[in-house]
């Protein structure tokens, strides 16, 4: 399937997100909004977290992957699916493919964490390793589709994916109608595009703040340039957010719906992970904890002046025990 153009008419609408929610209702976890009272006392406004590490597959990605596969014809599904991914999308596609009873191949970086690789394998996917960047994985996935057949499941720059991920924002707006600020991760942009679309439709006075790693400021650079810009390289602990370029379609959503972008340094991620574990009993991978890190670093402080509730999306928790111990030892 080809990606839609990023014209204004191509933007995903809230009714498409609501349709995805109906598809997901029998299979996905409707994750709760949990009050983060310790942080609320510290910053003086009500704080909630949206713990997508409790989602099937350990991250929000299942929402988009299952939505995408649900839209394929039975004949297309029979030929199998191929997914390029740094880790969480691969596990999500593997799980969705297993639920539909179809074969899945996932293309992951040579630097993939053990938790993410074994997670995809455990769910029945064939794992192929290719390079270290988004483009390495995407090009190898296209080769597999060309040589073996099947459908490529894009990780973020697709309307069905965006609609599925947008159900996170749909649930936030319905569970907390007076939400004042939503802080959400930016990798390739599928989650932030979908969440911001839903929030602006259902809670239009709320602010949406995107957060990306300092070592991968692909949306920051794109906004400066007025169009997606490919970074020469990216690096950092938040391996799920290290895309070298924001998606074309996701960028169009960000331009319309995301109020501000902030970047977080690596050094702030581990203390945020530790705080989530100590106070909320939630295990977050670095990408999942980056929204909390942004708050702890004071990067969203000006959005808290009206004292309305703030929601932090915790995008995932796919980190193995040894890796978690090693990171937490730094804190």
| Overall pLDDT score | 93
User: Low-confidence runs (pLDDT<50, min 5 residues)?
Assistant: 1-9
**Total domain count:** 2
Oligomer: single chain
Measured as a percent range, the helix fraction is 40-55%
Q: What is the molecular shape?
A: globular
Biggest sheet strand order reads 1-2-10-7-8-9
Summarize the helix and strand pattern as letters.
HEHEHHEHEHEHEHEHEHHEHHEH
Taking all Cα atoms into account, the compactness measure Rg is 18 Å
Number of strands: 10
Quick one: biggest sheet?
A: 6 strands, mixed
Structural class: alpha/beta
Distance between the termini: 45 Å
How many helical stretches? 14
CATH architecture heading of the largest domain: 3-Layer(aba) Sandwich
What is the CATH class designation of the largest domain? Alpha Beta
Looking at CATH, which topology of the largest domain would you report?
A: Rossmann fold
Beta-strand content bin: 5-15%
């Amino acid at each position: 399937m080809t990606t839609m153009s990023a014209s204004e008419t191509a933007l995903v609408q809230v009714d498409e997100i609501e349709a995805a929610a109906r598809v997901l209702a029998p299979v996905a976890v409707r994750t709760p909004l949990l009050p983060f009272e310790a942080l609320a006392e510290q910053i003086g406004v009500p704080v909630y977290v949206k713990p997508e590490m409790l989602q099937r597959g350990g991250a929000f990605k299942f929402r988009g992957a299952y939505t995408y596969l649900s839209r394929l014809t039975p004949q297309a599904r029979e030929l199998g699916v191929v997914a390029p991914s740094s880790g969480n999308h691969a596990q999500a596609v593997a799980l969705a493919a297993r639920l539909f009873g179809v074969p899945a191949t996932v293309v992951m970086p040579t630097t993939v964490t053990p938790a993410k690789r074994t997670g995809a394998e455990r769910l029945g996917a064939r794992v192929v390793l290719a390079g270290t960047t988004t483009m390495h994985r995407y090009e190898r996935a296209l080769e597999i589709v060309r040589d073996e057949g099947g459908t490529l499941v894009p990780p973020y720059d697709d309307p069905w994916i965006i609609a599925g991920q947008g159900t996170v924002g749909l649930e936030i707006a319905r569970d907390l109608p007076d939400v004042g600020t939503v802080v959400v991760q930016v990798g390739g942009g599928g989650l932030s595009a979908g969440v911001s679309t839903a929030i602006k439709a259902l809670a239009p006075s709320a602010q949406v703040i995107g957060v990306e790693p300092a070592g991968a400021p692909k949306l920051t650079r794109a906004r400066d340039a007025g169009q997606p810009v490919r970074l020469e390289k990216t690096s950092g602990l938040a391996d799920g957010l290290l895309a070298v370029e924001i998606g074309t379609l996701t960028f169009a959503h960000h331009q319309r719906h995301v109020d501000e972008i902030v970047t977080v340094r690596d050094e702030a991620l581990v203390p945020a992970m530790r705080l989530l574990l100590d106070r909320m009993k939630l295990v977050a991978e670095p990408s999942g904890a980056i929204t909390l890190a942004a708050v702890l670093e004071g990067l969203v402080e000006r959005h808290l002046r009206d004292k309305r509730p703030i929601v932090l999306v915790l995008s995932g928790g796919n980190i193995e025990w040894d890796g978690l111990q090693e990171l937490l030892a730094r804190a």
